[in-house]
Design brief:
Blueprint: H1 9-14, E1 19-24, E2 27-33, E3 50-60, E4 63-71, H2 77-92, E5 95-96, E6 101-102, H3 114-125, H4 132-145, H5 159-166, H6 174-193, H7 232-240, H8 245-256, H9 260-264, E7 271-272, E8 277-280, E9 291-294, H10 297-306, H11 328-337, H12 346-358, H13 363-369, H14 377-402
Length: 406
């Protein structure tokens, strides 16, 4: 509790410099230049050079309020303390010391809209994205496709509102629709964390939107860069029959949900076979943050096949046939020869769609497995340490699904 009764009469008599001096408990002595003369009935002699008066300062509705209690020549220190004590009691009772009037009720704040919350939240987290294009895509996606939600109070958004946004693009722009849904879900997750939204997330897919949106069984792969996850097991079976380092690198990339560049730049020094863990250093990551990948049995089996007897820590795991790093085009060429018109990066979307649609794994574990970092540095460090075991379960389930054994 802040100290009170800091002053005494002798100290007050010595104070000459204009300013505001605290006695504690909201009581202050203000000193101003003055040529005041002593009043006949004054309790104390005035200082001929300055005027001294009492203030009670308190907070009200987010503002600093100053209430004059009288001059020091009229109100002694003891009387000023009595008045300040009475004022403090009124404040504690929720009354306004200015005439002891009840405080007027605060006007109800307008509800927070989805658009306002989304844009402010994006302002807060944008430092977590090193890629300017990615930051702009986030805003563009929300403003373009979630326009119907922008002016709606975020607390009132229900699954049918999300369906209204997704329905026009669900079967024609499947990749975009999936991205829009995921971003709406993440925004509302943030609103839940901040206490702005209550209840289940209306943009959640499994057990929610999957019952309200049309099935995508007739969507053809050729229009999209990602392979529908239902086709991944058959693809992985065909890929296993292919020889060459590029095919193995591609299989490893799919099993780890990694980016192409992360796999192509992988060195043996990043692999801990005993801990079954791949640690990608920050300088090789898109978000410039260290990333750990739990290695499943199928991923480890690929490493065992190609591991040299004496692997140098700086040696590439998947080197190009003529030395150096594999090019992204080399991995893409494997897909072209298999007549699968998708990109290597698209398998990350396949993984995310499978995890969201077919499993009960939480969204945070899914996003962390894709190296999508949470906003703050503290949150990132905490989640990395807490989620590794959960992510290992997720990656084991993904590997089992990819190999058709789930």
């Amino acid at each position: 509790m802040p100290a009170r009764n800091k002053m005494n009469v002798k100290l007050i008599a010595k104070l000459k410099t204009p300013g505001v001096y605290s006695d504690g408990g909201g009581l202050y002595l203000r000193i101003r230049p003055s040529l005041a003369k002593k009043k006949p009935d004054a309790d104390v002699d005035p200082d001929p050079a300055v005027a001294k008066s009492w203030l009670f300062i308190y907070g009200g509705r987010g503002k600093r309020i100053e209430l004059g209690l009288g001059s020091y020549s009229d109100i002694s220190l003891a009387k000023a303390r009595e008045k300040a004590a009475a004022m403090r009691e009124l404040v504690l009772e929720g009354q306004d010391p200015r005439g002891a009037r009840p405080r007027p009720a605060q006007a109800a704040e307008p509800p927070v809209t989805f658009g306002k919350f989304a844009m402010e939240w994006l302002d807060d987290i944008e430092d977590g994205y090193s890629n300017r294009k990615h930051r702009l895509q986030w805003r563009s996606t929300i403003k373009t496709y979630a326009k119907a939600l922008m002016e709606k109070p975020i607390a009132d958004i229900r699954p049918e509102d999300v369906v209204e946004v997704l329905q026009p693009i669900w079967l024609t722009k499947t990749e975009t629709a999936g991205r829009v849904r995921g971003r709406i879900e993440r925004i509302i997750d943030a609103a839940k964390a901040k206490g702005v939204y209550q209840g289940e997330n209306p943009a959640r897919m499994r057990g929610n939107l999957d019952h309200l949106l049309p099935k995508r069984t007739k969507v053809e792969v050729k229009h999209h860069a990602a392979l529908p996850y239902k086709a991944v097991p058959a693809f992985m079976k065909a890929l296993a029959d292919r020889q060459g380092i590029a095919a193995k690198a591609l299989a490893f990339t799919v099993l780890t949900a990694a980016r192409s560049g992360e796999t192509r730049g992988l060195t043996w020094g990043e692999i801990d076979l005993e801990a079954k863990l791949w640690t990608v250093p920050a300088e090789r990551m898109k978000a410039r943050a260290m990333h750990q990948v739990p290695l499943t049995a199928p991923a480890l089996a690929i490493l065992e096949i190609i591991r040299p007897e004496k692997a140098d820590p700086g040696q590439l795991v998947f080197p190009a046939p003529r030395g150096g790093m594999l090019s992204d085009m080399t991995m893409t060429a494997v897909l072209k020869r298999m007549k699968v018109p998708v990109t290597t990066h698209g398998f990350r979307s396949s993984f995310r769609d499978w995890a969201g649609d077919e499993t009960q794994h939480d969204r945070e574990s899914i996003e962390l497995s894709l190296a999508h970092m949470p906003p703050s540095a503290t949150e990132r460090a905490y989640r990395r340490s807490q989620a590794l075991a959960k992510r290992r379960e997720l990656m084991n389930d993904w590997a089992a699904y990819c190999l058709g054994s789930s």
